[in-house]
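Subject: Sanity check before I submit

Could someone independently write out the structure tokens for this chain? I want to compare against mine line by line before I put it in a report. The sequence has 320 residues.
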Amino acid sequence: MAHLSVRTQAMSDANPFASPIVFDFSQDVGDGEQILAYATAMSGFTLNYQTNSLYWAEEAGAVGVSLTPNLVGTVLGIGGNVMLTDYDGDSALDPPTSDSGPGSVAQVSALAVIGTPLTQPPVCATAYGLNSGQNSSPIPIGDNTTSLAFMAGFSVAASEGTGEIGGLTLTSSVGSPVGNQVTVTGGVGLTDFSTTGTVDVGVLSYGPDLVGFAVQAATPTWGAPNGQQGMSGTFSVDFTIPSGYSTITQAALLLQDVTVVYDDTAEFQLIQAMQTGDLGIDGGTVSGTFVLNMYNPDAAAHHYISADSTTTMSVIAQFA
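---
Independent answer below. Compare away.
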């Protein structure tokens, strides 16, 4: 028997180079236990241009978020990197200034399977660098397990030159088991723009021998797009706390799909799919607000996110 622990936090706006986000699981590790497996998750991101011209918005060249983990004992350090460039001196803003909007950051989550060294751990891992739209190698799983895929990072670049875009799409999925094996697939693309890309896809495959957690879909109720503020959605997920537990101690969002739709094909300053602040935990309920955004604030060239934008995501909760 093993149990699952969950942690999440956002990169700081001024994240120094090579300074990782640190997740300490020591309080969840009992006598004789250790972290048997872990996975990273990209639970949100904000990518905002720092331009070297009089204009706020620029064309797209390359866009990405990457997470690099390093486990030392019961502490998991994850280096987070965000990328945004038009190959002409414009890049991701960090840290923010008063008139240029938020810094470019990622919301990072970590899942850790904890148990004794003799425990056969469930699958909790990340497949890195999958070509967009192509399956991973087969992943062995146990009998009678449930498998969940989620985004852990992406990189997408222009196939040739730079250009205007109509949005961003991210997808992740896990196939049906075949002979106790599954494959995961992810996709990334900039709408109305020829690109090549890779994705990092996390996978959790579990049965009744992994305890102390639950996963449920979170479906935001979206408000109307509000100009440069983007489109906000609120969600609330109710969990049934199992026997032997009394509360939810930690929770995180797992993004499966993101579709950001622009109102035109144009230059942009910011692309965002990000939770607002911390998730709220009240007894067996986890709630929060998620923002989708994309805009060009330049005079006479205003463009904003479309109401067709959407997400598919889940809340994963840890019990105690």
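---
OP: Matches mine. For the report I'm noting this point. The two ends are 16 Å apart (CA to CA).
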